[in-house]
Design goal:
heterodimer, A: alpha/beta, 7-stranded mixed barrel, 12 helices, 26 strands, disordered N terminus, B: alpha+beta, elongated
Chain lengths: 567, 226
């Protein structure tokens, strides 16, 4: 205000005021517009750049968005980021999660049919640990591109990571099995105990009667899979007791727990042709089965057992002369109205090829006879020769039975119709069941023995015996004692009589002396008689005529006997 | 009320311009305004007068103020868009890589339990630049139309815009500081991303825009207003 009033006052002196210097500048004010133009240019270039870099948008449907983060979770292929999750939302029916992914321009090939996506999370399985890095970095979406060029926007994520990446060197094969066992996707495939592949997937057959297991064998080891290669399930522990002792056979500890498949060519000459991709193989239960010679077509036979088959289980072996030729597949009860019995129908699969050369020879013989070389015809021939099925005890401890086809001598002939389906083999009672029957008979007989009355009689007899013994103790024994004392006395007397200074002894000595003397005189007599036999007739002569024979010989025996009685 | 009385008085009182005078802002010398000729009236050439005593540039108004302010403001606005869309900072720690834009950083701060910090960052990075854009645009439009509406408030608003303009650089400083401080290679790492450059440029350009706006323009056009 004051300034303005001052200015007002100075107004008249305006012309005396100094004039400012006027400078010319080169700068054109409109150049300032270069700045927003530049800014706009930068902005536009950014937009264009991002538009150029933007790849296709795809949608992946997942079961759960666990661990996924909109705007952060990357999509990786071979651990290279090829896109990023932009948005996560629920599907309209809330059954699954839809994840929008912006792929990079360079990864537009991943928006094609056949590309597989899955969420990589830390997984800890028996076969190992995977995706451990995601513990820190968070889950990401893994991708595996397919072959197709057809564009695709909607994908369904795999629940488990695929075992095999597309384009990996190697080949896949299909194994067919009845039972998956402990196999799983990712289970190892071993060749000579080296892991050369893994199980890629498995699925039930359409008819539900088996499982197809897809395995992938990595190159270059896939060339070891030949057309004659055998595959077996290497899961678990194979413990066998043989003539060589206890044998434990496993692949690796991981396999014991998590399962696995092993393959190898059979020993001996075989076809070495490298198998083409997706060849189908059977998956055997164990190495021994796998390595066994091929079984050929199995044949179904039926047996009708009249006795109990306790201990005969499905999978029990069927043996022919001790050679395993098949296995029991069913054990069922039947009812026979005629005999009112319950026969057991046992179904079995037998592999005639397991008979080896014998089967070939039988076939040749049947052909030579002009018969059909089919199994029923051969069987009918063998059955006429006494082939019978028996349920025999395989293990006395557990009572397990097996079916034995054997020639039974002196068995009655049975009618056999080779055209009947299924092929029914006549049976005879097993050796053990026969034994059982005999035992039962013995037991029956034993049970008929009247143990009761025997016992009663024995009791009475014992009572009588007891009374007798009492009598013996009370009366006989004292008397016996007295008798013994008497005997002792007698013996003492006898002893006395026999002692050295007893009169008997002395008398005996004197008597013996007399006898001695008598013997001497007798000798003299005989000597005399020897010299003078006439003395027996003529009597004793004088001493001068001693040499003359004694005439009374006949009277001598009386003289002889008299000296004996003389003393 | 103040406006009414002020207007009454101002109407009665002449201005330096009307008296053909111009004052040197440094030495205080009052000169004759020779700019009566057309050389200084937006003929595309930015000619200027200078004080005959101290050679300070003498300007009746800041030269081409409208055009410059508009240009800088528009440039700032252009840069402000990528500044908000692009991530400004990457926090990397043990396999976790986190790219944050300004807004996502604010949201993260809020969610992770620092609402105070979130508000500060939000104010400095979003509210203040937007306020500057809106305020300067409004000042420019009203001044160009010579509107006499709420002149005092508009003048105050302009001073406020100039004052708070620096605080928008907060985000840039935060990123610069963290980048320098958090460098533990694998464990933890902070890196600046292109967004922060755009943001810094946008803030600088808004400051330049507010500097090139001449608040005296607010008070011009008195006659048309009344």
């Amino acid at each position: 205000m004051t300034e303005e009033s001052h200015n007002e006052q100075a107004l008249p002196d305006r012309d005396e005021l100094p004039t400012p210097v006027v400078k010319r500048r080169r700068f054109n004010a409109s150049l300032i517009w270069l700045i927003p133009a530049l800014a706009a240019l930068v902005g536009i270039s950014l937009v264009v750049n991002s538009w150029l870099q933007a790849g296709p948008q795809i949608t992946i449907s997942l079961q759960s968005a666990e661990g996924l983060d909109a705007g952060k979770t990357p999509v990786k292929y071979k651990n290279v980021v090829i896109g990023r999750v932009k948005k996560i939302r629920l599907s309209s029916d809330r059954s699954h999660v839809l994840v929008s992914v912006a792929l990079e321009k360079s990864a537009s090939g991943f928006a094609t049919k056949g590309t597989r996506y899955w969420v990589v999370r830390p997984r800890i399985g028996l076969g190992g640990v995977s995706g451990i890095d995601t513990l820190f970095s968070g889950a990401f979406i893994g991708a595996d591109v397919g072959e197709s060029n057809e564009e695709e926007e909607n994908f369904k994520a795999l629940e488990v990571p695929p075992a095999v990446n597309h384009g990996a060197p190697g080949r896949s094969f299909i194994l067919h099995t009845d039972d998956l066992g402990s196999l799983d996707v990712g289970s190892p495939v071993y060749f000579r105990r080296i892991q050369v592949g893994r199980v890629a997937s498995y699925e039930l057959d359409k008819d539900g009667k088996g499982i197809s297991v897809h395995i992938f064998v990595d190159g270059p080891n896939d060339k070891f899979v030949t057309t004659s290669t055998r595959f077996w399930n290497a899961s678990g522990v194979d413990l066998s007791v043989g003539a060589n002792g206890l044998k434990l056979n496993t692949q690796s500890l991981a396999t014991v727990l998590a399962g696995g498949v092993a393959f190898q060519d059979p020993p001996g000459p075989h076809d070495d042709t490298v198998a083409p991709e997706d060849t189908r193989y059977p998956l055997f239960g164990d190495q021994a089965t796998a390595m066994a010679p091929p079984d050929g077509e199995p044949k179904y036979i039926r047996m009708r057992f009249g006795q109990s088959v306790r201990g005969l289980a499905v999978d029990a072996p069927v043996e022919f002369l001790g050679i395993n030729i098949g296995k029991v597949v069913s054990v069922r009860l039947d009812y026979d109205e005629k005999t009112q019995t319950f026969p057991v129908l046992v179904g079995a699969l037998i592999y005639p090829q397991r008979l080896g050369n014998a089967y070939g020879k039988l076939e040749a013989m049947a052909r030579a006879r002009g018969e059909s070389p089919e199994l029923p015809q051969l069987m009918s021939h063998l059955i006429n020769h006494g082939l019978r099925a028996q349920a025999r005890t395989g293990n006395l401890l557990t009572g397990q039975l097996y079916v034995s086809l054997d020639f039974v001598p002196h068995t009655p002939k049975v009618p056999f119709d080779p055209k009947l389906k299924p092929l029914t083999i006549p049976t005879v009672p097993g050796s053990f069941s026969k034994l059982q029957e005999q035992l039962a008979e013995i037991v029956d007989k034993i049970s008929k023995i009247p143990f009761d009355s025997i016992g009663k009689n024995l009791d009475q007899t014992l009572a009588g015996l007891n009374a007798t013994l009492k009598q013996v103790n009370g009366q006989t024994l004292p008397a016996f004692k007295d008798t013994l004392q008497g005997v002792q006395k007698t013996m003492g007397t006898a002893n006395d009589a026999l002692s050295g200074d007893s009169p008997l002894q002395q008398n005996l000595g004197a008597t013996l002396e007399q006898v001695r003397r008598m013997a001497r005189s007798l000798r003299v007599l005989t000597d005399y008689l020897g010299g003078h036999p006439e003395a027996l007739l003529r009597g004793r002569r004088a001493d001068a005529k001693l040499d003359a024979p004694t005439p009374p010989v006949a009277s001598k025996p009386s003289a002889e006997s008299s000296p004996g009685s003389k003393p | 009320m103040g406006r009414d009385s002020g207007a009454g008085e101002v109407n009665a009182l002449p201005r330096a311009d009307e008296l053909g005078l111009i004052g040197c802002p440094v030495c205080g010398l009052v000169c004759r305004n020779v700019a009566g000729d057309k050389r200084l009236d937006g003929d595309g050439v930015d000619d200027a007068m200078a004080c005959p005593r101290c050679n300070t540039a003498l300007q009746r108004r800041k030269p081409n103020s409208y055009m410059r302010t508009w240009a800088l403001l528009i440039a700032a606005f252009f840069l402000y868009i990528p500044a908000n869309l692009l991530p400004i900072m990457r926090t990397a720690s043990l396999n976790t890589i986190d790219d944050n834009t300004i807004i996502s950083g604010v949201v993260e701060l809020w969610v992770k339990g620092s609402p105070g910090l979130a508000i500060i960052v939000f104010t400095a990075s979003i509210v203040v630049p937007m306020l500057k854009f809106l305020a300067l645009s409004m000042l420019l439009v009203t001044s160009q139309r010579g509107s006499g509406w709420a002149r005092l408030q508009r003048a105050k608003l302009f001073r406020l815009v100039e004052f708070i303009g620096y605080w928008s650089m907060l985000d840039v400083f935060v990123v610069a500081l963290l980048t320098a401080l958090v460098r533990f290679s694998v464990l933890s790492r902070v890196e600046p991303l292109p967004g922060v450059i755009f943001f810094g440029l946008a803030v600088v350009l808004t400051m330049l825009a507010s500097m090139s706006f001449d608040p005296r323009l607010i008070w011009d056009g008195r006659d048309t207003d009344d």
